[in-house]
Amino acid sequence: MNENEKKTGDWKTILGGIALIAVLFISIKIIFWGLDQVIPKQSGGDVQSSQSVSASVPPEGQETEDAPSFCVHCGKGLPESFQWGQFCPYCGEKNER
User: Fold this and answer.
1) Separation of alpha carbons 67 and 81, rounded Å
2) How far is the CA of 44 from the CAs of 13, 51, 92, in angstroms?
3) Global pTM value
4) CA-to-CA distance for 1 and 85, rounded, in angstroms?
5) Cα torsion through 72, 73, 76, 77, rounded to 10
6) What is d(CA 23, CA 20) in angstroms, rounded to the nearest whole number?
7) For residues 48 and 18, what is the distance between their CA atoms, to the nearest angstrom?
8) Listed residue (16, 3, 81, 12) closest to 48, CA to CA
9) Per-residue pLDDT tens for 26-68?
10) Which end of the chain is more exposed for a tag (fewer CB within 10 A), N or C?
11) Does the structure show a pLDDT above 50 at 74?
């Protein structure tokens, strides 16, 4: 009889483990769904536009001159809001006057 009790206990343990895994999986899905509802997704365009707005304001005491249209280091075209003294978004080099 001890063998029969041991076998049924094994099945209960296995089924309990499977149920625990299923509950944890569903709980994690619910947590991520809740976070998705609370924290709005940001597209790549929104992040770049917020950076360009903050970067387009020149610091006090600095003259505003025409910004370069191409990077002096890599030659790639720069955004319209780019100003002297900023780093190139492509090569990372600082463009100075």
Assistant:
1) 8
2) 48, 11, 19
3) 0.37
4) 84
5) -30
6) 5
7) 45
8) 81
9) 999 999 999 999 987 766 544 444 454 455 555 555 555 566 6
10) N
11) yes
Q: What is the pLDDT of residues 10-19, one digit of tens each?
A: 888 999 999 9
Higher pLDDT, 34 or 84: 34
Quick one: tokens of 30? 């619910």
How far, in Å, CA of 36 to CA of 51, rounded? 23
DSSP characters over the chain: -HHHHHHHHHHHHHHHHHHHHHHHHHHHHHHHHHHHHHS----HHHHHHHHHHHHHSPPTT----PPPSB-TTT--B--TT--TTSBPTTT--B---
Residues 5 and 21: their CA atoms lie apart, in Å, by 24
Give the side-chain half-sphere CA count within 13 A for 78.
27
